[in-house]
Amino acid sequence: MLRITDLHAKVEEKDILKGLSLTVKPGEVHAIMGPNGSGKSTLGNVLSGRDGYEVTGGSVEFNGKDLFELETEERAREGLFLAFQYPVEIPGVSNMEFLKAAVDARRKHLGLPDLSAVEFMKLARETSKRVSLDQAFLKRGVNEGFSGGEKKRNEILQMMLLEPRLCILDETDSGLDIDALQVVAEGVNAMRDKDRSFIVITHYQRLLDFIVPDYVHVLAHGRIIKSGTRELALELEAKGYGWLESEAV
Ligand code: ADP
Ligand code: MG
Ligand code: MG
């Protein structure tokens, strides 16, 4: 599914990722934890192809293709989905239009016909119900005036509609109340499948009580300094990151 080998990347002339390697197989859920500023979001941004992030070394293979040969939109069509820590607002474009365009592009790539407006509306309504997002949000501008929790629900809605192969959630739990956290977790759990993988970036162990990962990795100073299973997350919660960082230096 995803093979990251010795990835180096910089942002504004500053080296952030310094030799990161990670392999994610179909069906696996990997959690990435680590101190603030360690490069977690940078990893997500580099993978999704966001502007301003320069890859200076290493390689990433996604679905057997060289990820860096693909434009951002192609990555999405190929089935890569990134849920941002701070979702963008796109005033003036209705959420429904935005979602339909994204779903049409993904379906086209998969060789499936476009859904009619009526079919899509039905699907979008059913899916919004599953994420407890009022249908009124489908008509509003993308994320325009949405609360933090509503933006996250909207992201999970988008993720469910797109049916990606690999979902990256970057601190999707930050600032969420427990109900919204459960919506995110239930959404992810409902989508877990032998062919779909997740990278869950999180600061806190808490989310991993709801989304139980197969592997947990610690990212510090731009590299993965330790990998383990769920127990590692519990250990980190109890002991913090300091012991690992001093071990790794
Ligand atoms: P994390 O998500 O682990 O908290 P980030 O990947 O957001 O860490 O940031 C890693 C480092 O890169 C930080 O020092 C941060 O200030 C820097 N950085 C990230 N994005 C940018 C950017 N767009 N412009 C300048 N510096 C950035
Ligand atoms: Mg951060
Ligand atoms: Mg971050």
TrEMBL record:
<dbReference type="InterPro" id="IPR003439">
    <property type="entry name" value="ABC_transporter-like_ATP-bd"/>
</dbReference>
<comment type="similarity">
    <text>Belongs to the ABC transporter superfamily. Ycf16 family.</text>
</comment>
<keyword id="KW-0547">Nucleotide-binding</keyword>
<keyword id="KW-0067">ATP-binding</keyword>
<dbReference type="InterPro" id="IPR010230">
    <property type="entry name" value="FeS-cluster_ATPase_SufC"/>
</dbReference>
<dbReference type="InterPro" id="IPR017871">
    <property type="entry name" value="ABC_transporter-like_CS"/>
</dbReference>
<dbReference type="InterPro" id="IPR027417">
    <property type="entry name" value="P-loop_NTPase"/>
</dbReference>
<dbReference type="GO" id="GO:0016887">
    <property type="term" value="F:ATP hydrolysis activity"/>
</dbReference>
<protein>
    <submittedName>
        <fullName>Fe-S cluster assembly ATPase SufC</fullName>
    </submittedName>
</protein>
<feature type="domain" description="ABC transporter">
    <location>
        <begin position="2"/>
        <end position="246"/>
    </location>
</feature>
<dbReference type="Pfam" id="PF00005">
    <property type="entry name" value="ABC_tran"/>
</dbReference>
<dbReference type="InterPro" id="IPR003593">
    <property type="entry name" value="AAA+_ATPase"/>
</dbReference>
<dbReference type="GO" id="GO:0005524">
    <property type="term" value="F:ATP binding"/>
</dbReference>
